[in-house]
Design goal:
This protein is of the alpha+beta class and about 600 residues long. Helices cover about 30% and strands about 25% of the residues.
Length: about 600
């Protein structure tokens, strides 16, 4: 048999053999997934990247003993004849479930030590164990499947972008600092003492320069680096995005180009889940904040909030009425809760609100054709009926209220909306709901300093151009900025760029930058604009978040091959690490470490 098989490791993978191969001489290599000792017979599941094939050997000879003594996750090569399984042993859950390989030859390529975590099964393990032994974690079926999905998604995106005329290009990794809103990772220069490179937070300036250079449609699966804290949907340190830029385009042109790519990718990998039809809804920022309390609305939740300030103004509920009278900026928002009209549910929501650091969550619920609860009694039946009519509520429904300055309470209102929708099982299941958030304000006021700041991307074109900057209150100026959101997850930000130097000078002047500041910090881009720059714009959907949604994973770590901990540590490679003293000298820097506390 050995002579008839030429390759030293395998004639097939562990996922491709079928009943048609019965009787063939086969060689397979892989990991011992699990073993089942039936006394006279030893069954072994052999696993590779492609699947699992069952092996079988009788209890006789040295091969049996060697295989019996081999630990799970040892790498072996086996040779033998492929046989059909008996009817009662067929496993219809795997593609190779009708056959098994009867072992005639065995070579242990790499014996495994005792495992710190099991690969077989669905047992849960602590994060530090999973990340320290990530090479084992990645062998597990669910994680392995996620990384395969990630590869397929990126390949699909790349193909779709090329098909619609985009050119893939690479931009520098060692660059200069940029005002993206997060801390840069800095790299000291050995040959330029005292100077530092920065890892790019995004290829923003370079992709704009590519448009100025005459390339019409650019894309890149771009690595980005930001020294920021981790979240469930944000990996610390680095992430990847589909970076896009286009010339001679309006905002609608950019959105129209990106939508089919995202819809197509999600349709390809959604496994039957429904995708928003084109065009995706385009919701102005102010409207999104009013209806959902967030610029990242989860549209699977049908609940929309309403301004109910007029209901409580001058009412018998003195807490809300007094707030409205004292401060004209106070508003009362109503959050309807269809089928939430029971005192027990309302009390649970009130307790939840207190757990979130709030005083409580006022409510009215409806039964027997009237409102119930303390608020209903305080404002009276007429006002209670008015709000029930305005919100089209019925018996069995409830409504909750939040009060104060909207810019302060909107995060809590958004959380309450999602809590109500989740608790009442109102969210659509098995769907991906996309929307664009558009018409972002160009500026916002820092409440502590009174300083005007950019609210989004400083390189965005203001709607109305120079005239808007010169004649309109900066807080009323809107920008050609847009975010795309899916199921409450922001996938990307984008903008039509400010390609006119005189408008850029003015836009930054309003935010407190002098002309010298602009030229010093953004001189490369600004200089390029002075030699003829096309109108251009783009966006950058996050690859990690796209895969996280498609994989139905709650944490982005599950779709990244080698993620860091929440403390931005790589437990596998032990990074970050201390460097030798001679490296400090070589880089012309001195350590200034915080003193360790002694007790």
């Amino acid at each position: 048999m050995t002579n008839s098989i030429q390759h030293p490791f395998r004639t097939h993978t562990c996922g491709e053999l079928s009943i048609q191969n019965t009787g063939e001489a086969v060689r397979l290599s892989g990991w011992i997934h699990r073993k089942r000792d039936h006394g006279n017979l030893l069954f072994v599941d052999l696993r590779d990247h492609y699947g699992i094939t069952q092996l079988v050997i009788e209890n006789k000879g040295e091969i049996f003993k060697e295989l019996e003594n081999s630990r799970p996750e040892s790498v072996i090569t086996v040779t033998g004849l492929l046989e059909k399984r008996s009817g009662e042993t067929i496993n219809s859950d795997i593609p190779t479930g009708e056959i098994e390989l009867r072992i005639e030859e065995l070579n242990v390529e790499s014996p495994a030590q005792e495992l710190p975590m099991q690969v077989f099964g669905d047992a849960e393990f602590p994060e530090d164990i999973r990340l320290r032994y990530r090479f084992l974690d990645l062998r597990r079926e669910a994680v392995h499947k996620n990384i395969k999905l990630r590869s397929d998604v990126i390949a699909s995106i790349r193909r779709r972008m090329v098909e619609i005329g985009f050119m893939e290009m690479q931009t520098p990794i060692l660059t200069t600092t940029s005002p993206e809103g997060a801390r840069d990772y800095l790299v000291p220069s050995r040959i330029h003492p005292g100077k530092f490179y920065a890892l790019p937070q995004a290829p923003q300036i370079f992709k704009q320069m590519l448009m100025v250079s005459g390339f019409d449609k650019y894309f890149q699966i771009a690595p980005c680096f930001r020294d920021e804290d981790a979240r469930a949907d944000r990996s610390p340190g680095e992430f990847y995005q589909l970076d896009i830029e286009m010339s001679y385009v309006t905002q609608d042109d950019v959105l129209d180009a990106i939508e089919p790519v995202l819809q197509g990718v999600f349709q390809e990998f959604a496994n039957g889940r429904e995708i928003s039809s084109l065009p995706f809804p385009r919701i102005p920022y102010a409207e999104s904040m009013r209806l959902y309390g967030s610029d990242k609305p989860d549209l699977r939740n049908p609940i929309r909030m309403t301004n109910a300030t007029h209901i409580f103004s001058g009412s018998g509920f003195k807490v809300f009425a007094g707030m409205i009278e004292k401060d004209p900026g106070v508003e009362i928002w109503a959050i309807p809760a269809p089928k939430g009209g029971s005192r027990s549910f309302c009390d649970r929501m009130n307790s939840w609100a207190q757990g979130e650091g709030q005083a409580g969550l006022g409510y009215i619920f409806f039964r027997d054709n009237e409102g119930a609860g303390p608020l209903a009694k305080n404002i009276g039946s007429k006002r209670t009926e008015q709000i029930r009519t305005e919100l089209n509520l019925s018996d069995g429904d409830a409504i909750f209220f939040v009060a104060g300055q909207p810019k302060i309470f909107s995060p809590f209102a958004a959380a309450a909306r999602m809590k109500i929708g989740t608790e009442l099982e109102l969210l659509e299941d098995g769907v991906f709901k996309f929307c664009w958030i558009v018409d972002y304000p160009m500026y916002e006021m820092d409440e502590d300093t009174g300083k005007m700041e950019f609210s989004h991307n400083p390189f965005s074109m203001p709607q109305g151009g120079m005239e808007a900057l010169e004649k309109i209150d900066p807080l009323d100026v809107l920008a050609f900025q847009y975010d795309i959101v899916c199921n409450g997850i922001e996938l990307s930000s984008g903008a039509i760029r400010n390609h006119r130097p005189e408008i850029m000078y003015k836009a930054f002047e309003i935010a407190g930058y002098s002309q010298n500041d602009v030229e010093e910090q953004f001189g490369g881009l600004l200089n390029a604009f002075k030699f003829g720059a096309p109108p251009h714009g783009g966006s950058a959907p996050g690859i990690d978040r796209i895969v996280m949604l498609l994989a139905d994973e709650p944490n982005i770590r599950e779709v990244i091959a080698f993620p860091m901990t929440q403390q931005a540590e790589d437990l596998l490679m032990k990074a970050p690490l201390e460097i030798l003293s001679e490296r400090y000298k070589e880089l012309h820097i001195k350590p200034d470490l915080p003193k360790k506390e002694t007790f």
